[in-house]
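Q: I have 99 residues here and want to know how they pack in 3D. Can you give me a structure?
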Amino acid sequence: MQYTTRRDGSRVETALSGRLTFADAGQFPQFLDQAVKGGTVCDLDLSALTFIDSTGMSLFVHVYDAAQASGQKVIMRNAKGSVADTLRRASFDTLFEFK
């Protein structure tokens, strides 16, 4: 997984790309620190995310927990293909706003 983060006022915009798998678990604490903390909206652009496994999905559970603890809104944008299917099958659209 690769990601870039940009802050725009109270919005933290993060674009994820590549594969989000067990191999990326070591990056989760740093990702959470950069993408979730410090804003009122966490905007995740998933357009370049090509694959996600169950460990990768657990990152989004951590995002949800951190956002709930800080009163932050999370938006998932542009998920497509197998990533969108996987997130919807796991009912992540009940936890996050999908656009």
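Q: Anything worth noting?
A: The first helix runs from residue 28 to 35. The radius of gyration is 12 Å.
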